[in-house]
Amino acid sequence: MKRLPPLQAAGLTLLLASLSACSSMAPDYQRPAAPVPAQFSDAGSVVQAADSAVADLPWQSFFGDAALQQLVQTALDNNRDLRVALLNVEQYRAQADIKDADRWPSLAAGLGATREVTVGVPLSTVYSAGVLMTSYEIDLFGRLRSLSDAALAQYLSTREASKAAQISLIGAVATAYYGLHADTQLLRLAQDTVQTRESSLRLVQLRFAQGASTQLDLSQAEALLQAARVSLAQTSRQLQQDQNALALLLGQALSPAQKAQLAQDATPSLPDLPGALRSELLLRRPDVLQAEQQLIAANANIGAARANFFPKINLTGSIGSASTDLSGLFQDGSFAWTLAPQLLLPIFDAGRNQASLKVAEVGRDMALAQYEKAIQSAFREVADALAARSTLAEQLQAQQAQTRAARQIAQLTDLRFEHGAASSLEVLDAQRSLYAAQQAEIQLQSQVQQSLATLYRVLGGGWTAPATPAAS
Hints:
This protein is of the alpha+beta class. It is built from 10 helices and 4 strands; from the N terminus they run ααααββααααββαα. Strands 1-2-3-4 form a 4-stranded antiparallel β-sheet, with helices on one face. It is elongated, with a radius of gyration of 37 Å.
């Protein structure tokens, strides 16, 4: 071992660290232009306020129903898919820490002995103890930094994915909640309809016994009652299945209190959406940010592939104490150090480095296409949701008017039947039309409610934090 004054040895590590503080060879990242129109054409018919993003509105403020808020919070605490997404973030964070640690020397305490035999020279033994530095690459061309940047971007990507999973979960719980309210109304409607048609059948049976009705009238009344019972069974099954689906989202079974709350006949409150809805707001959606971080990671991988064409300097060494006598290992004058640099310059690799660079460049192009597709898909989702909101409102108004007309027709037909001016067939047909119109109205009301939850989800609502910065 060559001996070195302590102050010079102490500065050796600082010198090595400064040599590796080099810039990456990755291409300069510039966010690609969004391949969509600047504004949604249908936004003005749905929203009222200007220049405000739905992404700035917390879900607690958007969904003001206390029962729904409780369900959403339960899902956020217990949903297993969301739990896996959050654990995935932690895993990628640890992997990013590993890649960042590769940029720095690894030090370990060591104790060893070397025995050397040379012809004509007596056997010699050298004892050493100190701090050892395993193989350390001086990152002159930013290869390790690029790999660290790529790992960091992958971690940020998974973090955005977890945000997207949370927003999707909130939207799914809200959709299920509104659907269960509709199921409850449909079930009550089916129960009322069965009771009404049982009364009608008894009346027809009485008239048949008196000779005032025909066998055809009796059979038609019986068929209409059985159709209502079929609908009742279907609606009851749908309600139970939707409750099971909501329980899966919540990560636990519905409590009796929650079932009782869902059985109430209250219409959930629905706030209006703020925002002028410029398409650039899509860049704040977590899934779009996730795709952008994947693009940043792919861009950093190009830097690592480029650095492979340049020399690598690997260092191993130690600093501590050395002596030919074990008892003198830690005495004065035993300080020593070793340094073993190795320069590796690529000469022939059968095209491996060139192929690796090509893979990285193609990966970047693929990530770019996926990023642009994520924006286009987000644009379509929002445009579809806006179109649904504007048309469903008109459709619901028309359906409500149709239900009122069908109810009036049924009432007038009953009155005419009581005075002998209408047949039982006309009464049954009017009842059938009214039941279908009532079902359609309830289902449309539910679609209007669910469309608002969908629009909130596709706009990336529920996150007040600013967009995640790009990895540098």
